[in-house]
Specification:
- The complex is a heterodimer of chains A (245) and B (71).
- By secondary structure, chain A is an alpha/beta fold.
- Chain A is built from 7 helices and 9 strands.
- In chain A, strands 1, 2, 3, 4, 5, 6, 7, 8 and 9 form a 9-stranded mixed beta sheet that branches.
- The longest helix of chain A has 19 residues.
- The two termini of chain A are 16 Å apart.
- In chain B, strand 3 and strand 4 form a beta hairpin.
- Classes of the chains: A alpha/beta (245), B alpha+beta (71).
């Protein structure tokens, strides 16, 4: 893999960034890290995130990381991921750590990743106490772990919208989050990344709940059948979409 | 022994054998913390199924918990 891309530098992405860069700085896997987020820190973020109000989240993290991990090249994209820019920012041979706050962006990223030949997508999301991590993997065109939209109609047909789809006077509905729940999602995502870097593609999904202090990983075994279905679905869709191979 | 799963929760019991998923939802829904029925995806041995499925002794029934939305 050539690059590691973190999309969303909020509660989960921000918890991933520093330990991930520390690990990459001391190993030989990947030396290019890209941080993508169009969001700016608001005063209400201060209970879970540390930065000056008004600063772009990706730029703030890049500034912090660049000085600390000299073997890494950290680049930033201070805008949201959209259908217009996703091919530019998520090329083939990427590992994507997705920590966004809406299912519409998860769907967009999954659909793009499904068209690549070599890609790993690790997506985390949480509610107040619980959440999940999903892993999609494709190697040399072969799907190893099923898309994150599989069995998840809330992602396949999202009821929310991407931030770039909102008007100037609109914002995504805000709901309270717990810092420790963000940390657990981030930690499980990093565990999955570690396994992937060891060439172990084991878990389609990991659920967790901090009230039980527990996590359960699942490997759904019908992935080959599902991959075929997904491929057919994407093939039908791709007739109207230009595909980068 | 049939196993029911939802998120981190799991229940295994011989008493599920021969019952429909619909039947066991009524008795285990709260224990498993099952999500809203209107959007419930049910997998039996990793294949998509429905509430009318009759549970066999070695079935693994998963009620797919919705993905966390925030980050």
């Amino acid at each position: 893999m050539d690059a590691l891309v973190i999309i969303g530098l909020g509660g989960i992405g921000g918890a991933i960034a520093e330990p991930l860069c520390r690990y990459l700085d001391h190993t030989a896997y990947i030396k290019q890290v890209k941080l993508i987020d169009g969001d700016r820190y608001e005063a209400r973020n201060s209970e879970r995130q540390q930065a000056a109000t008004g600063q772009n989240k990706a730029e703030a993290w890049a500034k912090r990381l660049s000085g600390s991990f000299r073997s890494l090249t950290v680049s930033t994209v201070a805008s949201f991921i959209t259908p217009d820019n996703i091919r530019l920012y998520l090329p083939d041979n990427s590992i994507v750590m997705l920590g966004v706050d809406n299912h519409a962006t998860r769907k967009l990223v999954q659909e793009h990743c499904s068209r690549l030949r070599n890609v790993v997508l690790i997506s985390g999301g949480n509610d107040y106490y619980d959440g999940n991590v999903q892993v999609f993997a494709k190697k040399n065109g072969r799907v190893l772990l099923q898309p994150i939209t599989c069995f998840h109609p809330e992602i396949e047909s999202p009821s929310d919208r991407r931030p770039d789809e909102l008007g100037c006077d609109e914002e995504l509905p805000s709901s309270p989050q717990l810092l420790f729940t963000n940390f657990m999602a981030a930690s499980l995502m990093l565990n999955e990344l570690y396994l992937v870097l060891q060439d172990q593609f084991q878990h389609s999904e990991v659920y967790f709940d901090i009230r039980a202090n527990a996590a359960r990983s699942l490997t759904r075994t019908n992935k080959l059948t599902l991959s075929t279905k997904e491929a057919q679905r994407l093939k039908q869709r791709s007739s109207s979409i230009r595909v980068d191979e | 022994m049939a196993k029911l799963i939802c998120g981190i929760n799991e229940i295994s019991n011989d008493m599920f054998n021969g019952k429909t998923i619909e039947d066991v939802i009524a008795s285990t829904g709260q224990l498993l913390n099952l999500p809203d029925r209107s959007n419930l995806v049910i997998l039996v041995n990793d294949e998509e199924s429905d509430a009318g499925h009759v549970i066999a002794a070695d079935d693994e029934v998963e009620f797919v918990k919705a993905a966390g939305e925030k980050g």
